[in-house]
Amino acid sequence: MPPVSLAVPAAGRIKKSNIFLPTCSSLCATLVLPSDRREANMELELDEELRRQFNNKHKVIAHFATVDAGNGYAPEIRPMTLLEDGWRFYIATSVSSRKAKEMVSHPKAAFLVYFHDGKNAGYLRVTGKLQTVTDAVTRDKIVKAAAYPLECRWKGGAADPNLYFTRIIPERAEYLRPGEDESKDISREFPR
Length: 192
Hints:
Layout: E1 4-10, E2 13-19, E3 29-32, H1 44-53, E4 60-68, E5 74-78, E6 81-85, E7 88-94, H2 98-105, E8 108-116, E9 121-132, H3 136-146, E10 163-176, E11 184-185
């Protein structure tokens, strides 16, 4: 995939950067990002900076991690689709999948979005608790806000009984700007 130009504020100035995203064949997830931040407490400047890091406000490649509680809490990383609405993060998968079983047995997860500007790398890393979302109306609202076509995998859409839908409630969030040496704790910026 070709690099995508973006602007990254650094120490009060704008710096041109590129973001390089792996293909979905790597262990990654799609993070869907509508631009509505009204329900989040995020400062406008940080909100705009993070949104600029993504090559498309609706999709970006991320890495998603769970643990297998039945296998000595072995870490697992895999492709999944993450949905975002007002900086609230959601995951959709099949009820019968191994990953859904892992999330039910150990309701914690993490994801990482990696940024690269040619010489420097940065990331957004979020870890948190998982909360199952069962209401079809709520699911449908989130999916529509994210422009994610659930029907391509679940014929019943948001109400499909084979759909496992959960929210990641951020407990810790770190942001490392490309070119900086230390990450910034932005945990308080996300809604609980």
